[in-house]
Amino acid sequence: MTRSTIVRALALTATSALATATLAAPAHPHAHPHAHAVIDLPAITPRAETQVLHDDEAGGNADADDPAIWRNTAAPGRSLVIGTAKEGGLRVYDLKARTLQSLSAPPAAGPDDAPGRFNNVDLVHGLRLSSVRTDLAVVSDRGHDRLRFYRIDRDRVGGPLTDVTDPAAPPVFSKNQDEINDQRTAYGLATWTDPSSGTSFALVSRRERTSIALLELRPTKGGKITYQTVRTLDLPSAFRLPNGTSWSPCGEPGELPQVEGMVVDPANGTLYAGQENVGIWRLRADLTGGRPKLIDKVREYEVPGLYDEETEECTPGDDPGYGGSELSADVEGLTLVTESHGGGYLLASSQGDNTFAAYERQVKDGNAYEGGFRVAPANSRLDGSEECDGAAALNAPLGSRYPNGLLVVQDGHDAPGEGDRPATNFKFVDLGTVMNALRD
User: Fold this and answer.
1) For the whole model, what pTM was predicted?
2) Low-confidence ranges of the chain (pLDDT < 70)
3) Among the four 132, 260, 356, 405, which has the fewest Cβ within 10 Å?
């Protein structure tokens, strides 16, 4: 998201209708005036960064967004990081952050149609494909409103990823190409395998809507993958205030508060979903069984304002103090740091103040806030992370380079940069350093 989007998140849109506002209240609704000072958070420095991507014609409209970490169990030091690059497709990196493979997004269906645009990526492990168990990278293609699937083979000649998407895979939300071109399409993504049945699913959010769809992944003939919608769920777009009025985050007319960052805890099938200018929801990954719970809110929650058609921005009003203290809109990349005893953290990118918030992983502890950190510059050439869109953590040894695990975060403004060219990439951070900072 851009800074103008963050500003728009502060305001009230008059066009939003009141949705269900009786969902469970936040577990710990801190007031905005008590927000932490960013400077007080520990500063963690990255060890490496990927090649810069440029979201312009010369750069192929490539824009780093969301990463996933695939562990090579036979040779952990030869593990991979897979990152989306929007219209630039996919990038595959080694643990030195060197580019191993670039895959293009599919072309537009027609000359006047939207091109492929890869938004988020997650992994599925051990899916049976043509009688062989294989690991997959799953990608949301916002441009075509579809999921794309890539088989992972670290030693394949030509690159680790091979496209195994069934050509007949349907749009996720759209009924026709005209709706696809409106781009209220597949956006955020998380995968989940139900341990009771072994069935794998993808949870997909919808751009500019509050919808989340549960899709069952299905192998087809010839070693391809498709999917079928199981059910959908809509999060609220408006919220009841203590004074009896209602509030909705600001957006362009007709635009509802979307979800992007999502992650599923495999231990208990819990989905965490970041509604960008609202907060973090906790719900069941199968989208059944009770009301979603808002475990934390952004600071800008319930701040009124007005949308200006001319500037395409919102003018915020007075802060009533109903927001949280740890997240500044937008809440973006969500990832889990899992520990063998059931502990660990839910990490969330607080895009508005360039920090990361950590919450207790265990639901029985109410997902309480446990601390935060910044990814700061290591030196004049290796900068930190700003306006982070996506993050991925893996708490497992990854060879001699990352024996304590790895955190990969998107950097929305790579420095030193090249003049006014938009520049993004991914930063590689030692997860052990993060864990030590959170435990101090």
Assistant:
1) 0.91
2) 1-39
3) 132
